[in-house]
From TrEMBL:
Native species: Paenibacillus vandeheii
CDD domains: ICL_PEPM
UniProt keyword annotations, A-Z: Lyase
Protein's UniProt name: Isocitrate lyase/phosphoenolpyruvate mutase family protein
Native organism taxonomy: Bacteria, Bacillati, Bacillota, Bacilli, Bacillales
GO MF terms held by the record: lyase activity
Length: 259
């Protein structure tokens, strides 16, 4: 069994521009074990899916202790590196972020997603404040002796409809990418960005490896890799598909139409 430090190193090395790490997001120990059995190289949670699986809405409504308990079950059930979606860090202050990231590492994660969306979902943290929060996460990792992969999520594109995605937003994202890298981030996560030309330019100009989220079978990881993407994740899509299948199965059983 690899140590936590070894798992963290393996996870870092899996982010290769042009040959992306593919993460089919999970929500509990059972789904993590199922993905491990498919040959996955790492396990990633998605906050929306985890919250929904526990009957909660997304947006840090799920108690943090329950988030940690769920994480502990996942890390104990699989051999693969695990990265946790910690939303906005479950705290606005630098001290809260540092403490919470310390707990996440203690419970076996070697990576986190941490977003720059404000807690109420309206707007983003100013760059300077988010950098302080990212630096606090990095400090927590250094004190724990773990090279934590900090996937800095910016919601610049998610908070704008795709029709408004343009080079002005791309420039804003690049400003944040540079600042977040200097603050200790390991990667840049841009949920909501779908325009392939903008994705390619972002990958070419960002010093951080870029993570793109897709919510269907297209574009494929191979196609995104050709644009320079280093990480592909699927957010709530696997959970939604699994629940849709469960509903269809239940209906067929209860209606007596199942063969």
């Amino acid at each position: 069994m690899n140590t936590l430090q070894e798992k963290a190193a393996i996870f870092h090395q899996a982010h290769v521009k042009g040959n992306p790490l593919v993460l089919v997001n999970v929500w509990d120990a059972g789904s993590a074990q199922a993905l491990q059995s498919t040959g996955a190289t790492a396990i990633a949670t998605g906050s929306w899916s985890v919250a929904a699986a526990h009957g909660e809405p997304d947006g840090e409504a799920m108690p943090f202790q329950l988030v940690l308990a769920n994480l502990a079950r996942i890390t104990k059930s699989v051999e693969l590196p695990v990265t946790l979606d910690i939303e906005g860090g479950y705290g606005r202050s630098v001290s809260a972020v540092k403490e919470n990231v310390s707990h996440v590492i203690h419970h076996g994660a070697v990576g986190i997603n941490i977003e720059d969306q404000l807690p109420d979902g309206a707007g983003l943290y100013e760059v300077e404040e988010q950098c302080l929060r990212l630096s606090a996460a990095r400090e927590a990792a250094e004190q724990a002796g773990i090279p934590l992969f900090i996937n800095a999520r910016t919601d610049i594109f998610l908070q704008n409809v795709p029709e408004r995605h343009n080079h002005a937003l791309l420039e804003e994202a690049l400003i944040r990418s540079k600042a977040y890298a200097e603050a200790g981030a390991s990667g840049l996560f841009v949920p909501g960005l779908q325009n392939q030309q903008l994705i390619q330019e972002l990958c070419e100009r960002s010093s951080l490896p870029v993570n793109v989220m897709v919510t269907s079978y297209e574009p494929s990881p191979k196609q995104l890799g050709e644009l320079g993407v280093a990480r592909v994740s699927y957010g709530p899509y696997p959970y939604l598909q699994a629940m849709e299948h469960l509903k269809e199965l239940g209906q067929s059983i209860l209606s007596g139409t199942m063969l």
